[in-house]
Amino acid sequence: MAGPPFASRRLLGTSAGLRGRERVYETKEALEVDEANGITVSRRRLFYDDVAFVTLHSVSGWPGALALGLFAVLFAGLAALAVPGGRNPAVVLLAGGFAGAFALLAVARLAVTSKVVTVHGRRSTVRVSCGPLPGRGQDTFSRLCSLVREVQGRPGLLTEGAGGPAGRRSEQARTQALVAEVHFDRDASPERLRALGEVLLALQGANSWIAAMSGLDELLRGECPRQFSKAIGQTTVSETGEKRFELVQVFYEPILVWGKVPPPGGITVRAVEILAAGIPPDLGTVSSPDPVGV
User: Fold this and answer.
1) Contact 81, 115 (CB under 8 A)
2) Is the pLDDT of residue 42 over 50?
3) 279 and 213, same structural domain?
4) Which of 47, 98, 108, 211 is the most exposed place for a label (fewest CB within 10 A)?
């Protein structure tokens, strides 16, 4: 199964860490994060309609400054050890020069702040490192906010701050929460998928605390929902030089059920028990939501 060509995506930012290199792309429907560790490439998605709020904040480069400072101290120590003997002034000058250079780099790294845009979903988070270039962080922040507003058709999910990703959720985001997951046989016949959709639709109509269900439209058409948030694959290059992401394994999402918070009338809702009682076991099973996704 082939994923979309890289030309259909727009690179927003890259970062490197202990787990490998991470690239964040913008698509029409979601943010895609490709994580490469040198052997495999994994892809996860955060769909715009699942975004709760977006934040823009500044981060300092103290981890890099600390590493550079340690190198400065190391070379300064070597220079100090070579001074008393005075037999090799070249070593003193070389070590002292490196110590000074690393010290200047540490100060510069600490003085430069980078902008980070964090997109908070109901079950996952995507961080876009925009670097220190003036205006890039604000442009990325405004663009992502516009995309989310366009998909969701609602304002009020944007926050800015200098200290971190703590922001104010929109009113709609505060009044919905993921309450249950419905697992089903993806190889079931269209009749059985349609039957599951009709049962879920009836449950939604009978329970006013249910805010939304993912994949319901596809089930009612007798189709299997194909929304996924994570996949594992590899990058291939065609003879023409075009790069493509080939999916090896896809982790499809179950049917996600969102509830209203607080429930109408302030009643106590046991979502998993209510849904499990209403769904025939041969059509699907219900579990508590996985907070980190599939």
Assistant:
1) no
2) yes
3) yes
4) 108
Tell me what the mean pLDDT of segment 89-97 comes to. Answer: 76
* pLDDT-derived band at 233, boundaries 50, 70, 90: low
Q: What angle do CA 80, 86, 92 make, to 5 degrees?
A: 45
Q: Check whether residue 52 and residue 158 sit in a common domain.
A: yes
For residues 39 and 127, state if they share a domain.
Answer: yes
Q: Return the number of other C-beta atoms located less than 10 Å from residue 93's C-beta.
A: 12
Quote the domain boundaries for residue 66: 62-111
Residue 229, pLDDT > 70, answer no
CA-closest candidate to residue 190, choices 198, 181, 200: 198
Does residue 1 surpass a pLDDT of 70? no
String of DSSP letters for 42-56: EEEEEEGGGEEEEEE
Contact between 140 and 127 under an 8 Å Cβ cutoff? The reply is no
Provide the sign of the torsion angle of the four alpha carbons 172, 24, 142, 162, taken in this order.
Answer: positive
DSSP per residue, 264-276: GGG----HHHHHH
Specify whether the CB–CB gap between 233 and 215 falls below 8 A.
no
- The one-letter code for the residue type at 71 is F
- Quick: pLDDT tens for 159-191: 444 333 333 333 334 456 778 899 999 999 999
Structure tokens at 37: 């560790």
- Taking the C-alpha atoms of residue 42 and residue 124, their distance in angstroms, rounded to an integer, is 15
Shared-domain flag, residues 140 and 32: yes
End-to-end distance of the chain based on CA atoms, in angstroms?
19
Type of residue numbered 67: A
Tokens representing residue 252 in the block: 């499809």
Domain tally for the chain?
Answer: 3
Whether residue 132 lies inside any domain: the answer is yes
Is pTM beyond 0.70? Reply is: no
170 and 213 fall within a common domain: no
